[in-house]
Amino acid sequence: xxxxxxxxRTPLIAILKxxxxxxxxxxxxxxxxxxxxxxxxxxxxxxxxxxxxLTQNKDxxxxxxxxxxxxxPKESSFLIxxxxxxxxxxxxxxxxxxxxxxxxxxxxxIQQAGGEVLVRAPVQQILINSQG
Length: 132
Fold this sequence. Notes:
By secondary structure, the protein is mainly α. It has eight helices and no strands. Helix 1 crosses helix 7. The longest helix is centred in the first third of the chain and has 15 residues, at 2-16. Keywords: FAD, Flavoprotein, NAD, NADP, Signal.
């Protein structure tokens, strides 16, 4: 439920970046921001606090806290972790052979367009046309 709430309310957080800072400060100081959406409470609540309410399983708490980045759970926003968990809940993808496969397979396309692909060649200048 919290992952879905976080993902559905993300546009509200983006809107805060678009309105004047003084308005945002008023919304925060008066508590109106939390009245608008509970997602703002999740943003201000650390990961440890929420996970302690959700489960007593210390292994699960630790796994979910350090799954994506190495910030201690008491210093990380639960909202960010919920968004990341929601994003990856159906899995993640990685190219067979590693990320270098993208570069390797685009060589032919570059050459067909008249370009050259050189490895470990000294570069003095990069030429571009008026279209970039």
